[in-house]
Amino acid sequence: MRPPVAELHLHLEGTLEPAFIIETASKHGIELPWRSLEHLEAQYDFTDLQSFLDLLYVNLEVLRDEDDFAEVTRRYLVRAAAAGVRHAEIFFDVQAHTRRGIPAETVVRGIRSALDRSVADHGMTTKLIMSFWRDLPAEDAMGALTHVLGAGLPIDGIGLDSAEVGYPPSLFVEVYRMARDAGLHVVAHAGEEGPAEYVWEALDLLHVERVDHGIRSLEDPELVERLVRERVPLTVCPLSNVRLRTVETMAEHPLPRMLELGLLVSLNSDDPAYFGGYLDANFDAVVAEFGLDARAVEQLARNSIDSAFLEPDERARLHGEIDTWKRDRSD
Ligand code: HPA
Ligand SMILES: [Zn+2]
After folding, report:
1. Under which EC number(s) is this enzyme classified (predicted)?
2. Which numbered atom of ligand 1 lies nearest the CA of 13?
3. What is the distance, to the nearest Å, from the Cα of residue 195 to the centroid of all Cα atoms in its chain?
4. 271: domain range?
């Protein structure tokens, strides 16, 4: 039932599995607050975005050297390939590392060394998106961007994440201008816990090409109309929304309504090691909950390809893979 897809909303730091966290801490002699794997595994009951971020930001401290970043990337690529991912656009949180004294060079080179093998190893194309913590001052993001551009580190775009409410996109106008001027792609988390107003700001002030989450857009019919008209991609993460209690239950998730409204929605796993599964688990969860038929699944897959930062020939190739999947299914 699962088609070839693009994954466009995936935080690399959110792919650290508990066993990897414990192993890597031990490799570096790092003392984590967790006494054991079981103690760590008992921490995954989240009440909101912040309660998750608190755990995420402790655990990612095990990432220290280029090898760590390469290894976590390799593991994601293997798991994503098994889930049917044919193209991945991957976030990393630059300040999560630089504030601990890990240079952006170490982070980007480590991740890139794994990404550079992904076509050969998995037939999977990739992009790398540097994300900023919106609850740090915009000057901090500006400093990081200036450094990465000056050093010529290979990134494809920028994003905006971390605690949303109280940190509107309008704070980051200059950062996004600089990124666009440098030819980078621009996306931002908006309308996850924050209001529809933040989605308007992301579009009008940051000129984003894609909105991450965006589910609260549904509270504003005028915004929905614009998102449909302009075919603005929304990267939706159902398991994440349930685990962070952005929606109360999967049954109340707005995905079916978003499809009905004609929004360009794709499915994504966000932080799969924290939210109960990779992209395949997200597909399975919505298919099970809403009884989506093959046409709806195909639509979600095609939407992911149309939402990706791909050249026309790459886009056509991936649509062709979906054609093949479809033909094989009906044989
Ligand atoms: O879904 C998210 N929202 C905000 N910040 C994040 N950092 C990792 N995942 C997320
Ligand atoms: Zn996210």
Report:
1. 3.5.4.2
2. 8
3. 19
4. 5-330
